[in-house]
Amino acid sequence: CYEFNEAKFQDNNKELIKTVQTNILSDINSYLDNPESSQILVYIQDIRKLQELIDKISKYRKFEQYTDYLEIHANLSGEKKSKIEECKQDVKVVFMTSSASRGLSFPKAKIILVEIPKFQIERNLMEVIQVIYRSRGEYWENNTAKTLDDQPKQITFYLSDRAIYYPQEENTSSQEYAEEKKLSLAESLLNLWDILLILKLSIMTRITGAGSLGMKKFMMIPIGGKSVSAAGNTFSSQVTNMIRELKNEHRRHPQKQTLKDVYTSLTNIFSSADFVLLKDENKSQKSDSQYRSYLSLMESFNQKFSHYCQRLDKLLNFGNIETGYLTGNLLVVPISKHKLEETYLMKLESQIRQFANQDLVNKMKEISRNEKNYPPNIISAMKGSVLEFVELLKGDINRTQWFEQNSQNLDQYYALPLFVFMSRELMSEYFKQELEEEEEKEFRTLLSKYVHYLYPAYNTLPIGRKYREFPFIVFRSYSLEEMREKIYSDRYLLTSNELNILNLILCRDEKD
Description:
The chain has 18 helices and 21 strands. The protein has helices spanning 9-33, 47-60, 78-87, 121-133, 174-208, 235-252, 257-269, 294-308, 312-316, 348-355, 358-369, 376-382, 385-393, 419-422, 424-432, 443-454, 480-487, 497-506; strands at residues 2-3, 39-43, 69-72, 93-96, 109-115, 138-141, 144-147, 154-158, 164-165, 211-213, 216-218, 273-279, 291-292, 320-321, 325-327, 330-334, 338-346, 401-407, 412-417, 458-461, 473-476.
């Protein structure tokens, strides 16, 4: 719990993460110091945090992979999978991410340490429950089948949140300010309380068929969505997905500089792009022409909207606007009835000759042939159409190139911050300066994180990191519409912090 300070905001967040990491590290070391301790499962979705834990443990004790611990995630090479099967019963600690919890069992594990992610809770809770069930089953020892399912097992959950209060205003009394601080702390605790209740109900539903909440029994089954449209990926989507996979692999193995060289070069090659929305006449209805698009409002909104707000009749004459979803300070607009035209400009000197060269081709081929050190998804991506495109660019080309593609998807959206409507000119002037910023502080990164926090999103564009006029992202989401509908459905109990607590209070026997 701390006072809001913009300069220290990131530092405070890092401090919270560090505190949780320290607690997990302390617990793991205490179990390792106990020779009687059983095998330990450690579930952390963030691969970077998981790697940091391994590095810290290795500094203070002998801690070797395949001898003392296993590191399991989705991107494993065939050789690593074979090694894991051979030694999974003998290691002391098994580190795993959400992607690794399926299809694996560790029947000798009696201790489970789980960090609860706070985003996409329905999908992550399903993974947490799967992790718990990884510690059951039989194992062979001295030619005899044994099981620990009849013995007690220990599960520790790690959950954290920040309570932020704002500096005291001049017209606020000390008593009112103290009350505001209490409310901030209470709201943060309420968030943790909600997640713990959902976690308890979900686990008990899986074990016994229902969980107790107050005086009643409830069944809660977290359902995570699956994307079925991967086969319809465009070329730009393949590029952005490849860059994402390369970044993830580089975070796990920072010493592999080749990975960074490849995704940096690809980002620079596709850094200059124009996005245009074109109406699909076949899907558009006559009534659609009556709706004004948000993009068309940008240029005049700041000057004209105040005029419409002077009187109610003028505001009503403003007209209808196309469908859009407001979440906080973010506007999300569906574009299923539009064709998305992407045009990528690749300048001869600054992009093609500098980045789409033989050095990039050699590095991509080197990765594709190195099955021992790189996972199958990376190797497969390196052999695809992206390599062919780079080889085409580096050929006998003596002028600037353009690449254009058109696509249309029922689950595609664009998102932009609301302040663009009020401060577009200011934003444009800011981007013209082309200031160098850390990737974590760029508009592209912040917008992407914001959207991924709210909805399951993938195929996020643009590929480049800088904007010319205003910040935006284009993305696809297989369940955004469904999630929006659930917010206003009376069939769903847990939809907001306030409704959560109100409903939980009311969940008691009427006789009481």
